[in-house]
Write a structure and sequence with these properties.
By secondary structure, the chain is mainly alpha-helical. Helix content is 69%, strand content 0%. It has helices spanning 21-55, 63-70, 74-80, 84-107, 113-129, 131-143, 155-159, 163-168, 174-195, 201-216.
């Protein structure tokens, strides 16, 4: 984003801009390039998911396939990613951030801690319930099998959302209990993805009850 200022305000009063002309011109140019670079990265991430979903678990796409889908060049790809593995790791990180945002939004609709936990479990397992999301996630995980990254690495940040409701439910150690529950639920979701299975209502209800039981175990509830 290019920062602009009213002509009546001296540039040196704005801490966001350098004071000398040469530096300000360079700053504005880099700002424009930054926006362009961010757009290219997003195009690469989205194109990679499209191509990986198309290939499924039958074949792994090449960098050339991804840049062709994105409408970019190999030079553009290697400007941001040293390898395809690095791109896959970025997709997994991006997916975790999106899921975090979704779960936080769903949990914010509820006031009772039990309901927040239920929303969290439903949101995580929904990743395996939706056919399109499940197929895309599985394809990305399959492509990232050599990266050492995957769903387990997402457990801790996702579990952080449970710490507050767990504390309200009486957990004596909400951090540890939230991590434990997150690994269990994310592990179940991972198993469902690899088995190409969908969670039943009974599966979801059972996991909700198990999570609540863990939170209440030390709270006398």
């Amino acid at each position: 984003m290019i920062l602009s200022m009213p002509s009546t305000v001296p540039a040196e009063q704005n801490d966001s801009l350098p004071s000398d002309l040469a530096s300000r011109i360079a700053f504005r140019t880099l700002s424009r390039r930054g926006a362009d670079y961010a757009d290219e990265v997003r195009r690469l991430l989205d194109a990679a998911m499209v191509v990986m979903r198309r290939c499924g678990t039958d074949s792994r796409p090449r960098v050339a396939d991804i840049v062709a889908e994105a409408g970019l060049s190999n030079d553009a790809f290697y400007r941001y990613f040293p390898s395809k593995d690095a791109l896959v790791a970025a997709i997994l990180e991006d997916g975790t951030e999106r899921l975090l945002s979704y779960l936080a939004h769903q949990m914010a609709k509820e006031k009772a801690p039990e309901a927040k936990v239920r929303r969290w479990v439903e949101g995580v397992l929904a990743q395996a319930a939706d056919e399109e999301i499940a197929a895309t996630t599985l394809a990305v995980l399959w492509n990232g099998s050599s990266v050492g990254e995957g769903l387990p690495s997402a457990s801790r940040p996702l579990g952080a959302l449970l710490r507050e409701p767990f504390a309200e439910l009486g957990s004596p150690n909400p951090d540890l209990d939230a991590d434990f529950v997150a690994h269990a639920v994310v592990g179940m979701m991972s198993s469902l993805l690899w088995e190409r299975a969908r969670p039943s209502r009974g599966d979801v209800a059972h996991m909700v009850e198990r999570c609540l039981a863990v939170a209440r175990a030390g709270g006398g509830a």
